[in-house]
Structure formats: C-alpha cells, structure tokens
Specification:
The strands form 2 sheets. Strands 5-4-3-2-1-8 form a 6-stranded antiparallel sheet, with helices on one face. A 4-stranded antiparallel sheet has the order 7-6-9-10, with helices on one face. The protein has one helix spanning 2-53; strands at residues 55-62, 65-73, 79-89, 92-96, 102-105, 108-116, 125-126, 129-131, 138-145, 152-159. The chain is α+β, with helices and mostly antiparallel strands and 164 residues long.
C-alpha cells in the first residue's frame, strides 16, 4: 500500500514538473517571437528614417505610396542613389529598392500617406506631391491595423532633408 501511495505522489510531482517546464518553454518561445517582431519593426522604422532623410528629387507621393531616389548603402560598403518605391501590397507595406523587396510592416488593413507643405502653426498636409525639383518637408504615414471596429491606426512621421 505504501508503494502505491509513493508511486501516486511521485507521478503527480512528475506531471506538475512537466507542465511547469512546458509552460516555461512556451513562454520563452513567445518572448523570442515577440522580440524578433519588435526587432523587425524597429529596423523598418530606422530604414525608413534614413531613407527619407537622404532622398533626392524627383519625388512622387500619392495617397497610397511614394517613389523617389535615395542614397542607399551598397554591398561594397559605399552609398549610391537608388530608386525606391514604398506602398501597400495585400496586407503588407513593402519597399522596393533596386534588386529586392523589403517588408516594412504586415497585417495592415490600410496605408495612407500625407505630405507637409510648410512648417508652422497653420501647417498644411496634402494627399499628393509630384515635383521634379522638390520634396515635402515631412511625410506622415498612417498604418491601419485590425478590423474596422477596432480602428487601431499607427501614425509615423518622417522628416525629409532640406528641399532641393
């Protein structure tokens, strides 16, 4: 009888330890996955900031995307101007530098761009900017996520270098 009681208590301890270690392992995987997602998100914002600060006219901005030339780091270690297009495709915000596709955000329902005309208290944002000689002062990017009922929108603001 004592052996049966000891085996029962031992099996309960083993099952509890298994569930505890499984929970810890699942939590570690979730933390790792979220860290990777945060790294991708931060890297995308960093790339956008650097790219908009180094853009060159002509600049074409629409309500759903932008295209321009920007100084980009090459595999050889130097910078050279490259055409860039940024816009939504499906549920992703993608950048298309020369020779590749760079995903910047995913799970999007909507993407909208606005362009700052002039600084000041009465600042005017426009939905389109097409100019062969200049670029806007700033670009506002609104990323809609989730369902229409949730209405979660991330607003990103990127400064552009001095107008050319």
């Amino acid at each position: 009888m004592e052996v049966l009681v000891a085996l029962t208590i031992g099996s309960i301890v083993v099952l509890a330890a298994h569930q505890m270690f499984t929970g810890v392992a699942d939590g570690a995987r979730a933390v790792s996955s979220e860290r990777q997602a945060l790294d991708r998100h931060s890297n995308a914002r960093r790339w956008l900031k650097v790219t908009f600060l180094s853009l060159e006219p002509p600049f074409s901005g629409r309500a759903n995307g932008v295209s321009f030339t920007s100084w980009q780091l090459t595999p050889g270690g130097w910078f050279e101007p490259q055409p860039i297009e940024i816009g939504r495709e499906g549920s992703q915000l993608l950048a298309r530098p020369r020779g590749g596709v760079l995903p910047l955000a995913d799970s999007l329902m909507e993407v909208a761009f606005d362009y700052l005309l002039e600084p000041g208290a009465d600042a005017k944002w426009v939905r389109e900017w097409i100019s062969p000689v200049s670029a806007p002062l700033a670009i506002r990017m609104r990323l809609g996520r989730g369902t229409q009922e949730e209405g979660r929108v991330d607003t990103l603001l990127f400064l552009v270098k001095e107008r050319g």
